[in-house]
């Protein structure tokens, strides 16, 4: 799709299912190449980033087949350790293939990864960890070459709680010689999902969800099946869309246990929610109240991947709100477009002061990254009149069919 058209001003109402998690699926797809067998990922989101990751798998020798929402990977034959630049440049998660290739072939050629330009997001943390595991790193015209005769377990103290680095160390260490211990490991649910999958494959990974993860290397992994958990960021996007449009929605298969920080903010904004079995009911029919202070943080704090969407909602809140972005230094790209739509936002470093206005108006705007694009959709749903979002391909990277889902909830939205 090239653009998304929205005729705003309609409250969202109805019921929709939450897709499988993008950020859980991608490292699990990488993990599939660690065995010479077949793995099956049920509830796998069919999104652009997943398509790009499976394209990498096919290039290095795997067979990939979709059956409905199940992704079947046959990694019996992996005959290349090179990650294609043209695919790596499209998504940052391609860097996870390096840990998996090292685990399988003891070598990987790593182009610098792409993805959304929302900050520096260096991979030096990954590389320093690899060096501590007896992996050599060399520069070349194609990128970085990582190789080893034997991956050796070690104690690795991460300088920051990096999700990607934690996952890459786990992927490299699961079949290493000896034990790898990650200190200051990321606690995100997606890391827990990766560890759950590797243990299903015969791995021995302990401590997922805590700051210390222990990986006892095993000789061999086998194929496995897994149901990918629901996407907490997609769920959060729909929750905030309901709040912004003063709607009431039901989310099926919502990952309630991993939405605590967001639901606390929803409560402060005047929203109400109720959990019944695997359904989450969001009532945002009352006017949105300002939130004095929201700071992004690593899990279980408020996720940076929902900051932009929250910003859109707070543009029409009653009062003055403050958002502080602690994870990425370039997360306020949507502010330019929200100002064009009538918002009152003042930026000062990593802080955004948002003074609520009576309403937004539709405009021609541009998505510049994945979550910022989702935020502009929410702004378009809130606004009176028509909004057109160009460069909407960014949004396809993380949402399986956001326009269809929002249409089911009563939005007037379509691809151009």
TrEMBL record:
Pathway, per record: Cell wall biogenesis; peptidoglycan biosynthesis
Gene Ontology CC: one annotated term: cytoplasm
Modified residues (2-(S-cysteinyl)pyruvic acid O-phosphothioketal): 116
EC number: 2.5.1.7
The keyword Cytoplasm belongs to this UniProt entry's keyword annotation: yes
UniProt keyword annotations, A-Z: Cell cycle, Cell division, Cell shape, Cell wall biogenesis/degradation, Cytoplasm, Peptidoglycan synthesis, Pyruvate, Transferase
Record's subcellular location: Cytoplasm
Name assigned to this protein: UDP-N-acetylglucosamine 1-carboxyvinyltransferase
